[in-house]
């Protein structure tokens, strides 16, 4: 199937000799009528594939690899701000990078995150996005003056046809069995009691500890079907998956926005901390204190660089099907235009996933936790070459490794914490993913 619109677009580029001596990137956009849900289900298991649905309704699904940037340590984040691309396009010249960062960029990966990058962002080969009721295909290709036009046309037509000819995909669900929990209940309760003894409300007021539950899958996980379930049951969450390779994927559904930046100055941040199965229990001093530590952290960081910052006096309640959270939506205007990567470096990990104060809390976490959090509690989303973007904290998430599933949950410990209730809270939070297998 020949796409004459794309051929005409490419003919103009080659006729006018727009391809420079340095590497250029072709960015071609076209509205299509294939549903993004159909495409994502059919291609969900490809390498370098991702899916991101924002609570606003925007959906991004990408596969293939045009540009890939791996992050090995925190200092590497500056690489993400490089913007030396020559763009050949039938639309705007803005490029979006999709990916995420692990919770701790300073320490090496270990079980179960072995051989997975600390951070990674890509521009895919094909991006499908759904915005304002339209489904738009964007094709990216790195080219230079030696790249043959016929090769590009053939490559585009192959991808375009593969999407246009997609049929409906069989939806199957696999069975799941618990293998083990690390730490187990007794050890987790003991860890909490030891943390409470160390909290002095001077250099340490809160520590967030996590645990891992490993499950075995009878059949391969249908990520497209899981995402469909999350979209239906958790509309107010950021639902996503990222495939690291054919066997390993990070999957989740997060209610916690880290930061959204527009026009390099207008920002919004969610403080999300304080959780309970019973909504009335959110009035407890323990939940309010836990929430206020997160607000204080954000305020301390953002106030010096904002000309305006609005923090509501009282939190609202975020209601999920199985739990309730305290949430405060913070808005602000920066004094100077800023790249979102610079703000992420300041903000994360937040006290909602780390503790307060950060340095002491991280030291305790590294001493206590025997499994790697990996990307759990880090950040995930997209940013563009103008420096704007939208990121969430990947909680309610799991790592899939072939037919193994590692579900991560955590709880915020302060001096008023009850160890048994904190364990029960992690059990409740795991339902966000586990309930899919029971539906």
Brief description of this entry?
With 439 residues, the chain is of the alpha+beta class. Helix content is 27%, strand content 34%. The strands form two sheets. Strands 1, 2, 3, 5, 8, 9, 10, 11, 12, 13, 19, 22 and 23 form a 13-stranded mixed β-sheet that branches. Strands 4, 6, 7, 14, 15, 16, 17, 18, 20 and 21 form a ten-stranded antiparallel β-sheet that branches.
Can you describe this structure?
There is one protein chain. By secondary structure, the chain is an alpha+beta fold. The chain has 2 domains: 4-164, no CATH class; 176-438, Anthranilate synthase. The protein contains 9 helices and 23 strands. Strands 1, 2, 3, 5, 8, 9, 10, 11, 12, 13, 19, 22 and 23 form a 13-stranded mixed sheet that branches. Strands 4, 6, 7, 14, 15, 16, 17, 18, 20 and 21 form a 10-stranded antiparallel sheet that branches. Helix 2 runs antiparallel to helix 5 and helix 4 packs across helix 9. The protein is globular and about 70 Å long.
């Amino acid at each position: 199937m020949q796409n004459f619109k794309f051929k005409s677009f490419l003919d103009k580029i080659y006729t006018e000799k727009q391809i420079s001596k340095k590497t250029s990137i072709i960015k071609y956009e076209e509205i299509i009528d294939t549903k993004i849900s159909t495409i994502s289900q059919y291609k969900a298991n490809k390498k370098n594939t991702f899916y991101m649905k924002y609570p606003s309704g925007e959906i991004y699904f990408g596969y293939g690899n045009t540009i890939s940037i791996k992050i090995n340590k925190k200092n590497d984040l500056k690489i993400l701000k490089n913007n030396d691309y020559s763009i050949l396009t039938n639309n705007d010249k803005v490029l979006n990078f999709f990916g995420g960062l692990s919770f701790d960029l300073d320490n090496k990966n270990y079980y179960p995150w072995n051989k997975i990058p600390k951070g990674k962002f890509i521009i895919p080969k094909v991006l499908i996005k759904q915005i304002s009721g339209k489904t738009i295909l964007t094709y990216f290709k790195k080219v230079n003056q030696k790249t043959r036009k016929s090769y590009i046309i053939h490559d585009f037509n192959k991808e375009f046809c593969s999407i246009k000819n997609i049929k409906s995909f069989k939806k199957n669900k696999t069975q799941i069995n618990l293998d083990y929990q690390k730490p187990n209940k007794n050890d987790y309760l003991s860890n909490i009691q030891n943390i409470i003894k160390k909290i002095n409300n001077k250099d340490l007021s809160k520590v967030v500890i996590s645990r891992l539950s490993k499950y075995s899958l009878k059949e391969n996980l249908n990520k497209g079907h899981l995402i469909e379930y999350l979209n239906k049951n958790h509309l107010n969450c950021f639902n996503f998956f990222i495939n690291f390779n054919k066997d390993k994927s990070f999957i989740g559904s997060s209610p916690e926005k880290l930061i959204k930046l527009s026009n390099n100055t207008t920002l919004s941040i969610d403080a999300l901390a304080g959780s309970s199965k019973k909504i009335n229990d959110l009035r407890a001093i323990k939940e309010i204190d836990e929430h206020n530590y997160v607000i204080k952290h954000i305020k301390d960081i953002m106030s010096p660089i904002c000309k305006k910052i609005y923090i509501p006096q009282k939190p609202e309640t975020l209601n999920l099907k199985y739990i309730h959270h305290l949430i405060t939506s913070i808005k602000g205007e920066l004094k100077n235009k800023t790249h979102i990567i610079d703000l992420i470096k300041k903000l994360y990990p937040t006290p909602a996933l780390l503790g307060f104060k950060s340095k002491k809390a991280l030291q305790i976490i590294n001493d206590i936790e025997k499994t790697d959090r990996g990307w759990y509690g880090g950040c995930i989303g997209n940013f563009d070459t103008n420096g704007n973007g939208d990121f969430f904290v990947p909680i309610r998430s799991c790592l899939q490794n072939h037919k193994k599933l590692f579900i991560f949950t955590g709880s915020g410990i302060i001096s008023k914490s009850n160890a048994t209730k904190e364990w029960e809270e992690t059990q409740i939070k795991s339902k966000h993913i586990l309930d899919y297998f029971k539906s």
